[in-house]
Structures are given as structure tokens and as C-alpha cells.
């Protein structure tokens, strides 16, 4: 065998020998290469970026405990009574042992983060890149800023066990109706949705009953998917009760499952004798 034929190059799991050995190493091709950069604006590359947002979000949030997402207007400022309500809701949730997750922005998001932080709870902000410069509010203890709206929305649903919806505009409506649709279609099953502010939300709730229900575009039980209250203590109470009910239903379902497994096992044993 000639000397050049006997040369071997291993590149990760690959083996090259003789004339098949590439002229450059993988690192050289990665680090030395200068070429057109348009590939960073292609959809396949974006898919990797989207994946990395899921990885960052899941990594950050998968170890936080029981959490409640609080939504509400980016525009309602301190001094407005709804801001105080937002703070109180954040505080009560934290005192009840829930982490508070918001969109990390100003207004009522800030209010809920402030209440949670000042009560010693974990205050989380899931920010979004917007066309104008914006930082996470000062009351976010744990934060991540997303490029993609839909990735961020998955995080709210996946890592909280309830939604609280303070007064707000289109963004808040979007978050409210996404949650309700997920509950209505059975995509999530553990999810109380609590509206705060009967004066603000009353008209919407009436319209849901008087128009959507009467026109038959929702089911008779659907309006009850949302709870409405003005009282931050009741917000916590509604969420707690829903979680206790859910745990009881899950326990009962497990018991039924176990009982029928026992019956099947007994029948199988009986058949064998
Ligand atoms: C001053 C201003 C418009 C800032 C926007 N900055 C924002 N930062 C983070 N989340 C936001 C922002 N705007 C809207 N959202 C999302 O949409 C909801 C508020 O929208 P809106 O203000 O109700 O319609 C929030 O719950 C939040 O999740």
C-alpha cells in the first residue's frame, strides 16, 4: 500500500482514506468561509431561530412552579384605579403561592409584576420585540424577550395554570379569546379564565350571552368558561377552587381507571383457571 493511500482522516462519525480525504477540515469550512449572507433571511434559517426561541422559553420556564398569566393594557398608567387593581391581583396571587407571568411590558403588565415582586413572589415577563425600543419593566425578576408572537403565546399557555384578564385593548382581547378558544376546543383542560372589572367587561359578557348565544354560534355552557369579578381575593379563590376541582376530577378518573384495570385483571385470572 502506498503512503498516501494509508492516510486516514476521521471527521466526527465519518472516516476518509487516501484520495477521499477532503482538502479542508470541517472547522476550516465553518470558520474560514466568507460568502453571501442572504441565507440568514430565508425561511429554513428562520425555522432554526423559531426552534431556538422554543428552546430558550422551555429552558427558562420548565422549572418554575405553579403560575398564573396576567394580561392587560400596555397603556394604563400608575394613578389609574385599574393599575392599583393589577398590583393587588399580582400581590394576592404571589401570596397564594403562584408565580405571576405577564407580557413584561408597561401598564397593567407592570402593575401585576410589581404586586408580585413586592409580595416576594416570582415575577416573570415574557416580552416581545416590537418596532419601537422597549425594555422589560423594572418589576420583572425573570424575563425573556421573544421575536415571534406565536412562540411567546405558547409559553403563556404551557407554563401557567390560569389566565387573569385585566382591562385592555386588542392585545388583551387576543390573549383572552385565544385562551377561551383553547378551553372551548379541549386543547387545554386545566384552565380557569378570570376577567377582572365588571364595568369594563360587563358589556362584552352581555354581548356574548345576548348575541353569540342567541345566534347559536357558541354552546350554552360556553359563557361559563369565563369568570367575572372585581375582587382580587376572589380572583385567587376562583383559581384555587378550579384547581382543587380539577385535582379531584383527575383523582376520580384515576380511581375509575384503576378499578376497571382490576376488573380486567381479575377476569383474565378467572379465565386462566
Ligand atoms: C406602550 C405600548 C403600546 C407598549 C407595547 N408593549 C408591549 N409589551 C409587551 N406586551 C405587549 C405590549 N403591547 C401589547 N402586549 C401584549 O398584549 C397585551 C396588551 O395589549 P393591549 O394594550 O391591551 O392592546 C398584554 O397582555 C401583552 O401580552
UniProtKB/TrEMBL annotation:
GO terms for biological process: cytokinin biosynthetic process. It catalyses: N(6)-(dimethylallyl)adenosine 5'-phosphate + H2O = N(6)-dimethylallyladenine + D-ribose 5-phosphate; 9-ribosyl-trans-zeatin 5'-phosphate + H2O = trans-zeatin + D-ribose 5-phosphate. InterPro entries: LOG (IPR005269), LOG_fam (IPR031100), LOG_family_nucleotidases (IPR052341). Gene3D superfamilies: 3.40.50.450. The keyword Magnesium does not apply. One of its GO terms (cellular component) is cytosol. Its EC number is 3.2.2.n1. One of its GO terms (molecular function) is cytokinin riboside 5'-monophosphate phosphoribohydrolase activity. Keywords: Cytokinin biosynthesis, Hydrolase. It comes from the Bacteria. Belongs to the LOG family. This is Cytokinin riboside 5'-monophosphate phosphoribohydrolase. It comes from Marinitenerispora sediminis. The lineage of its organism: Bacteria, Bacillati, Actinomycetota, Actinomycetes, Streptosporangiales.
Amino acid at each position: 500500500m502506498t503512503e498516501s493511500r494509508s492516510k486516514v482522516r476521521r471527521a466526527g462519525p465519518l472516516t476518509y482514506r487516501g484520495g477521499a480525504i477532503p482538502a479542508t477540515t470541517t472547522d476550516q469550512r465553518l470558520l474560514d468561509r466568507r460568502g453571501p449572507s442572504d441565507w440568514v433571511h430565508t425561511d429554513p434559517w428562520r425555522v432554526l431561530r423559531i426552534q431556538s426561541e422554543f428552546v430558550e422559553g422551555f429552558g427558562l420556564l420548565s422549572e418554575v412552579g405553579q403560575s398564573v398569566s396576567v394580561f392587560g393594557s400596555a397603556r394604563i398608567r400608575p394613578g389609574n384605579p385599574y393599575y392599583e387593581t393589577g398590583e393587588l391581583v399580582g400581590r394576592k396571587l404571589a401570596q397564594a403561592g403562584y408565580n405571576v407571568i405577564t407580557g413584561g411590558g408597561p401598564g397593567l403588565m407592570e402593575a401585576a409584576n410589581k404586586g408580585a415582586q413586592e409580595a416576594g413572589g416570582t415575577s416573570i415577563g415574557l416580552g416581545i420585540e416590537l418596532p419601537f425600543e422597549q425594555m422589560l419593566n423594572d418589576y420583572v425578576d425573570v424575563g425573556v424577550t421573544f421575536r415571534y408572537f406565536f412562540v411567546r403565546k405558547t409559553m403563556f399557555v404551557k407554563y401557567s395554570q390560569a389566565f387573569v384578564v385585566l382591562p385592555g385593548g386588542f392585545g388583551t382581547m387576543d390573549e383572552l379569546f385565544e385562551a377561551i378558544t383553547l378551553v372551548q376546543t379541549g386543547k387545554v383542560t386545566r384552565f380557569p379564565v378570570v376577567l377582572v372589572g365588571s364595568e369594563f367587561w360587563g358589556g362584552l359578557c352581555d354581548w356574548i350571552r345576548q348575541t353569540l348565544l342567541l345566534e347559536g354560534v357558541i354552546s350554552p355552557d360556553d359563557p361559563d368558561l369565563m369568570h367575572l369579578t372585581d375582587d382580587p381575593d376572589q380572583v385567587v379563590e376562583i383559581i384555587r377552587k378550579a384547581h382543587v376541582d380539577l385535582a379531584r376530577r383527575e383523582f376520580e378518573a384515576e380511581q375509575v381507571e384503576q378499578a376497571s384495570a382490576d376488573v380486567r385483571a381479575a377476569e383474565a385470572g378467572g379465565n386462566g383457571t
